[in-house]
Amino acid sequence: MSVLRYGGRLESCAVLGPGNRAVLWVYGCCFSCEGCIGGRYKSGSFFETTAAEAAQWYLDSGACGLTISGGEPMLQAEALAEMVDRIRREKDCGVIVYTGFVYEELLEKAKREAAVGGFLRQIDLLIDGPYRRELDRNQPYRGSENQRLLPLTDRYLRELDSYYGQAEGRRVELHLSRTGSLLAGVPGREQAEIWENIKRIGEAT
Q: Which among 10, 71, 97, 186 is least buried, having the fewest CB atoms inside 10 angstroms?
């Protein structure tokens, strides 16, 4: 049974893909993108679970789709593919994945690593490429202009225009709990600064 490391997860989100989505931020990354907001998922504390438990978590959430970000999901391709497979045995689920690799790199990796190829076949929409601060022009749903929205199935073809194509600016959700804060979405710089200030206040109290 595959082990899965993650930094955070959210049962309901409306800013990381069409519909009410569950979001999983995996832990661990092989990139060092200047200005990346996901640094907390590269170093620091994390949770460890199984692909089976993560699948059940999604099924219990009642969400209509799953978005996976991080961290770098492709570093845990085997566990994530198993999780999605388990979910789809019980429920139809659209899967969106953010990755720092470009799609062409992943196709080459898939020739050497069966797990990467297996995971790619589970993905409906891939948002690829590393974050480039100098190309961050406040595009909705992606961090920088080099990142692409790549439909790997036809599930989200319509939404590429109706959801992604017509959006302006960036929307985020801030979720607060007794144990901390969680920012969902792709924040602009001002939004990220507000979140950092909230975290500092929480750490000081």
A: 10
